[in-house]
Every structure is written in structure tokens, then in C-alpha cells.
Write a structure and sequence with these properties.
By secondary structure, the chain is mainly α. It has 7 helices and no strands.
Length: 147
């Protein structure tokens, strides 16, 4: 990528706003906040299946968006490497290999992956002076690190 291409990519990212994104960041954040709240009741039955499907669908929507945003950065850029690693981790939580013996724990893992992908999407798409507009949950960094 030439200097001109890199500048153009940065300008595209800076012009991008959450309202223009093909995913509903606010709705996804609200769903993960509810699922990861310390006082949240563990879902059961259909509710558990619904949340699993919702978060798996969110991950399938977010991975290509994060990959596209990361792809605009130079190959050696640390934010690009971190975002792509997050995509790989989220992908590993889908399907039979990602299924936990504890379905409630699996839903929480999926929700943390959605949250992490949203963090990367916002970091890659928003200019530095305009940090994410969606609210973060208190202690989310600790939960994301625990996986």
C-alpha cells in the first residue's frame, strides 16, 4: 500500500460513523450487556437456544466487517493483528468445536466474543478523537481477558 493509499484508507475510516455500519452496534451491545450482567439469570430452554443463535449470528456478521476494517491497515500494524486474532478466536467458538459442555458458559463466551469484535470494529473504524459511542459495561476488560 502506498502512502497515498494508506492516507485514503485512513480518510475512509475517519468518515465512517456507527450509523453507516451494516451492523446494529447498539442492539448488539445491549444484548451482550444483558447476557454478561453479574446479576443476570441463567437462560434455559428456548431462551438459551435463542441467545446462542443470536450471538452466533452476530459473530458471523461481525467477523467480515472486522476483517474488512483490519484489512485497510498496514500488514504489520498491531491493531490489525489483534483484530484478526479476535476474529479467529470468535470463529473457533462457532460450530461443534466451540460447543461447551455447559450451554450457559457457551452463551457467555459467545457474548464476550461479540463484545470483543465490536470493540475492534469501533477501534478500527472510528478516528482517535471520536472514541466509541456505545456504552461499555464495567469490568468488561477483565471478562474478555478471561475468555
Amino acid at each position: 500500500m502506498t502512502g497515498t493509499d494508506a492516507e485514503r484508507g485512513s480518510a475512509e475510516l475517519a468518515a465512517s460513523t456507527p450509523e453507516m455500519w451494516p451492523v446494529d452496534v447498539v442492539e448488539m451491545r445491549n444484548a451482550t450487556a444483558q447476557a454478561l450482567a453479574p446479576d443476570a439469570e441463567a437462560p434455559a430452554g428456548e431462551g438459551l437456544e435463542t441467545l446462542t443463535g443470536l450471538f452466533e449470528g452476530n459473530i458471523r456478521l461481525l467477523i467480515p466487517e472486522v476483517e474488512k476494517a483490519a484489512g485497510r491497515l498496514p500488514t504489520a500494524a498491531i491493531p490489525r493483528a489483534c483484530a484478526l486474532a479476535c476474529c479467529g478466536e470468535a470463529q473457533s467458538r462457532l460450530g461443534p468445536r466451540g460447543i461447551s459442555s455447559d450451554p450457559v458458559a457457551q452463551v457467555r463466551r459467545l457474548a464476550r466474543s461479540v463484545d470483543a469484535l465490536l470493540d475492534h470494529l469501533e477501534a478500527l473504524r472510528l478516528p482517535l478523537h471520536n472514541q466509541p459511542t456505545t456504552p461499555r459495561r464495567a469490568g468488561a476488560e477483565k471478562e474478555t481477558a478471561r475468555g
